[in-house]
Design goal:
Elements (H helix, E strand, L loop, with lengths): L2 H14 L3 E7 L9 E7 L2 H17 L6 E3 L7 E6 L2 E7 H7 L1 H5 L3 E3 L1
Parallel strand pairs: 2-5
Antiparallel strand pairs: 1-2, 1-6, 3-4, 4-5
Helix pairs in contact: 1-2
Length: 112
């Protein structure tokens, strides 16, 4: 599966469970590790877990086994899902504001 397809499936999975402020960072020219980084906000820790789980399940049902996932245990404020060329970060509003990944990468973003 190509990176653009993975990205499309990941964003769709987040939208299906009402992910908020979905942002895509195109980082392929800055790193060899991934082409895209997706950042999404959940309204609560439980919502963050649900969003991360939906991304994993949606991609698996479309034939892509994620490389890994971190933070999916209950009570986590940040879930990371590694989808090969796409890495998805789902965070509470507080965690997203604190870590400010968009500023850290300091590149042009495109809102979904």
């Amino acid at each position: 599966m190509q990176a653009d397809e993975i990205l499309s499936h990941a964003v769709e999975a987040l939208e299906d469970v009402k992910g908020d402020k979905i942002t895509v960072l195109e980082v392929g020219e800055l790193t060899d590790m991934m082409d895209y980084m997706v950042i999404c906000t959940g309204t609560s820790k439980r919502h963050v877990q649900s969003l991360g789980q939906n991304v994993v399940e949606h991609l698996k049902s479309n034939g892509l086994q994620p490389l890994g996932s971190e933070g999916r245990e209950m009570g986590s404020e940040w879930v990371l899902v590694d989808l090969h060329d796409v890495v998805v970060h789902v965070m509470t509003e507080e965690a997203r504001s604190f870590y400010d990944l968009e500023k850290l990468w300091d590149i042009k973003t495109r809102e979904q």
